[in-house]
User: Fold these one by one.
Assistant:
Number 1:
Amino acid sequence: MCTAIQIDYDKGSVLGRTMDLEYAIDYQVSYYPRGYKLFKDLMGHPYENKYRLMGLSFGSKNPLKDGVNEHGLIGITNEYSLFNLYSKDLDLEKFNVSSMDFMNYALGNFRTVEELLADLDNINISLKNSLGLRVLSPGFHYYFVDSTKRGVVLEPKDGKLQAFENPYKVMTNSPGFLSQEKKLRAYMNLDNLASFNGAKKLPGGYDPSSRFIRAFYLTRTHVPARTNKEALAYSYNILGAMALPKGLIKNRRNDEYTDTKYIAVYDSKEKLLTLKTDLNPQVFQVSLDELIDQEDKLIIPVSREFSAVSLRDLGE
């Protein structure tokens, strides 16, 4: 139940997302220097990243749910629940990796979307390792944006990753990209958005297709961002409108709610991570430039308690 949007500005792009989950989870900012052993591939070989990267991870685990590397390549994972997504076998001629570790591999190994796409046929996401054991490989699809403002969606199908250029600058969940595009075009005339009354006609639901349409319209009709600060601010405004309030969707299996745990927005030019939690309205930020001398893995905890800045303190 996550929504991602891309907003371009003069010198770069920001890519933001809501993290919507049906259960409580601990998360933090994780930073990895070059040469860090991020994971083992499915052949059992340790993988060491070529580039510095950071992003949001769950618990004490290394896999990033979203992140940015030192060259400004940004990536986001979203839940993607379809059948026959990944290969059931290893391919000895390719790099074999789980869907859980693919984000770290992409950010740790490629500088641009072009580099990633050029190597896509050499990557095999599998459900099993070299011992024949099933591995944790959740249903994900991915959105990548680089410093050239190019954005692509990668979707698994029949054991392979398919790439779609993303002129809509939006990603939600299943169904697939082409189905979302078809529904969007059936809902409004993309060549004449002025004829569409968004204040009355926009879908208000939180299903993936409704969110895809709503996020597209809000980003496409928004005034253009001139600077990265404007792009960041506009992203938080739009993603705030997409966020799931706690209590709207109650889970039948447990005493939990599906809601937005955090909103994160990354900047490709500044290699910047910004973050707002569900209970704290303040926006936190850290850039890879600030961590350039950090030689070891770094975990940065994030406060989720409500806090505010005193206007009186600002006036003194």
Number 2:
Amino acid sequence: MSEQNYVTWNPWHGCTKYSEGCRYCYVYRQDEAYGSTISSEQCRKTQNYNLPVKKKRDGSFKVEAGSIVMTCFTSDFLLKDADEWRTDCWEMIKSRPDCMFYFFTKRIERFLECAPADWGDGYDNVIVGCTCENQDRADYRLPIFAKLPIKYKTIIIGPMLGPVNLENYLNSSICEVTCSGESGINVRPLNYDWVLDVRRQCINKGVSFQFHQTGAYFIKDGRMYHVPRRFQAQQARKAGIDYKIVDDYLPDI
């Protein structure tokens, strides 16, 4: 993506754990750290529920035109517990064609039942990321993802829990693949060799690749490193292995 303004929009908070990648979910960890008395499994609307359409005193939108809106990052946009609220969110998304909305999901099999009635072959301002933490989830979720009418698709391997072969799923419909380690205490390590192998697959298939973060425990050349949270994304960038096909795969907004 080119230089953009990034905005976080969490219309609801809380999520039920769904697969192995959820074991040490950062939402649960953050809720505990902040002393929340409400279970992280309890999904509830937030005060920012209508953020995309909120306005300032001068009548302009609080979310500026041209923003990339990172959507529902403390839950899952396709969570069943949020079915009653999602229609409103689609309406807000549709009303802001001047912004791009980006959400990840582990529940990609629910996409069509959760999509708006006028989705057609996809909204021009929505990017959907399918999260796959291991080969088992990749082989289950990505064939479903491949058949869905979505204009901008990304694959997120995070937290990456083992080597993953994506070659059967990489084609021109995938905008980007991202790899990430797992953050937290006593979490599972990320092996750099797994990351490099996914990068190789992406280069061979002509798909953009990004190494997003190392995670707390990072194995390189057979040695385990502990990487503090504040340095995990920085160390991934320092590796210098991102691979971009184009500078910006998104339309002008």
Number 3:
Amino acid sequence: MKMIIILIVRNNTKAREVILNLLQTHTDRQFTAEEIADEMIAGGVRIPIATIYRTLVFFEERKQIKKFVVPNSNRACYQGIPKGRDCSKHYHLKCNTCGKLLHQDCDAMTAFISHMENEHGFVVDLGQTVFYGTCVECRKKGGK
């Protein structure tokens, strides 16, 4: 018989540490609060969902993580920002097949963003810009 021991984290500092570690370790993925809870449980740690939400707000305010709202829903996803990167300065590519989120800097997009502002008076919020499609790995596997 396999016994699983789950540590219940009630200390906010420890919860913050564990959640930030998860998000910083997987900066190519987005997680919902529920997925974070599931990841914690799989790792033997249980953090109350209310603590997870409070912790996510805490890190978002400090620009250590990025919050994305899924289009046409009220569902929020969170992603760790890689150390030394500023997500407000580049755009993102999200794979519809595997869910991977790629941080991109591209001269062609920089020119496009500049064109939008100079020619159309529209300032694009790069930190909120996400292009959805299929990554090269999934295309190689036969994804759409």
Number 4:
Amino acid sequence: MRIDAYSQISQIYQTTKKTKVQSAGKVAATKDEVHISNMGRDYQIAKQAVAQASDIRKERVAAIKAGMEAGTYQVSNRSFAEKLMEEYDKSVTF
């Protein structure tokens, strides 16, 4: 291993160069700013509305529950199989 090669590389990348440090009395006048577009604001409002909405459709659940209790609720095997395959396709990656 050549040590002199390290010093040549550090010279190229100037890793040993001293950086200028700003004195404590002087404060930089730069200020960070963030600008949110109208589309970003709309997205944020929509996201909050969705977060506040219930994930469960109570009227749909009540109708299914009533059908199950009455013994009249029936599930199509074809519909069930199609939805099962859709979910399977989403989860499988090749």
